[in-house]
């Protein structure tokens, strides 16, 4: 009760607690400051009185900040070096250079009378180096540049030439060379050992069995697995970038785009949800090296639309579709698969009996053979056309028109757009014709030209035993599991038994890639 009497006034005397009064004044001040709104958002209500008030606050604060900007004045630093030769010499004696030359304090910088020059500099007992076979270079010249004597370089080239043709050693092959001690001053160092990867599956070693013995060649065959590498993925925003992200080599992707691009329009017909599928020849050695080769299979899964399946086949390395149809070569596509039976130029008409201009070429084909458009175009005429009988006329780009005559049936209509290879009719013998064939004409700028002057596409078709082998190979190739070639080869019992224990210092040497 005594504490209450000393610390607080009676309720009825009207006096207040000083701390409470200060708190109330502070709250009123904060309320007035908030009501002033001196820093409104300058991004809203631009041009209003409230906005100009905020601009004034910004300018005022900027002026205050600039008013307190510090002055630029020189700073005190160490006094300059005295202009005294003795003092400068003292400073120079404590520099890094004399210490690096062997002085302990920097004062004794020159040799004393106890120092005697060597009669000859000692040489390393061995020299190890790595030489690279250049493009257009020979093995013996590479060895001579590395310091091997001409006699030993020729001897090494002769030994290696017995195991593998020197021309088959690819440029960029690295050669480990170890040279021994010189037998006498000024002479070449003898070759102690030489190692190179002559082929992906063959390592050669040239060394001396005895210290002073002749050079001998040792062959080491390396087990190689040739399981192809299969890479699949979703096209996404970019087919190229998605394939690269999946681990496909750039050269294989270029071959894939070229092959698939002949079947579908990569810009218009490929969707982001489509699945690409490529199989690449791949070799992995038991020593850990890997080598990717050429594209073997190019596939594109397009959902409910027709997909693409192409496989490299034959000694020419062309791509064939799953039904055994080869790549297109040349310019325009042939309208029918038959041979030419009559060429462009003046001739005696077989029905009219007099000489007249034959403004096209005739293709021999059976009745009902499909006739296709030689390239993309638009139908400008379809129906009966005088002596041409049932005919179709197409307008192509670059002022080119084509006409197909003597059809038994027309399968397009005027104004319709057609694609390259699309069937536009069937072979017949309507009009002035003596039998089933196709009369094909070409016009440039409204004037007829010789269609034979334009190269046609050739497309090979496998058949018989070749087609059976092709389909069997394709079926086996598609059984390859995705990423199966990326696993490391397990060592055989013989390899494990002959493997030497690895030393810790040898683990510093990383295996080199043989490209």
The geometry reads as flat
The Rg value, from CA coordinates, equals 45 Å
Through-space gap between termini:
98 Å
Low-confidence stretches: 1-15, 511-515
Task: Compute the average pLDDT.
Answer: 82
Which key features would you list for this structure?
515 residues; disordered C terminus; 29% strand; flat; six-stranded antiparallel beta sheet; ten-stranded antiparallel beta sheet; alpha+beta; 11 helices
Can you offer a commentary on this structure?
- By secondary structure, this protein is of the alpha+beta class.
- The chain contains 11 helices and 26 strands.
- The chain has helices spanning 2-7, 18-36, 49-67, 85-93, 96-100, 139-145, 150-163, 239-245, 250-261, 464-477, 493-498, and strands spanning 127-132, 174-179, 191-199, 202-208, 215-221, 224-225, 229-234, 275-285, 290-301, 308-313, 318-321, 325-329, 332-333, 340-342, 345-348, 355-358, 361-364, 370-372, 377-384, 390-395, 400-410, 417-418, 423-427, 437-444, 447-449, 456-461.
- The strands form 5 sheets. Strands 14, 17, 18, 19, 20, 21, 22, 23, 24 and 25 form a 10-stranded antiparallel sheet that branches. Strands 6, 7, 8, 9, 10 and 11 form a 6-stranded antiparallel sheet that branches. Strands 1-2-3-4-5 form a 5-stranded antiparallel sheet, with helices on one face.
- Helix 6 (139-145) packs antiparallel against helix 7 (150-163).
- The chain is flat.
- Residues 1-15 and 511-515 have low confidence and may be disordered.
- Keywords: Hydrolase, Metal-binding, Metalloprotease, Protease, Signal, Zinc.
- Pfam families: Csd3_N2, Peptidase_M23.
- Residues 500-515 have a biased composition (Basic and acidic residues).
- Residues 1-21, 485-515 are annotated as: Disordered.
- It is found in: Cell envelope.
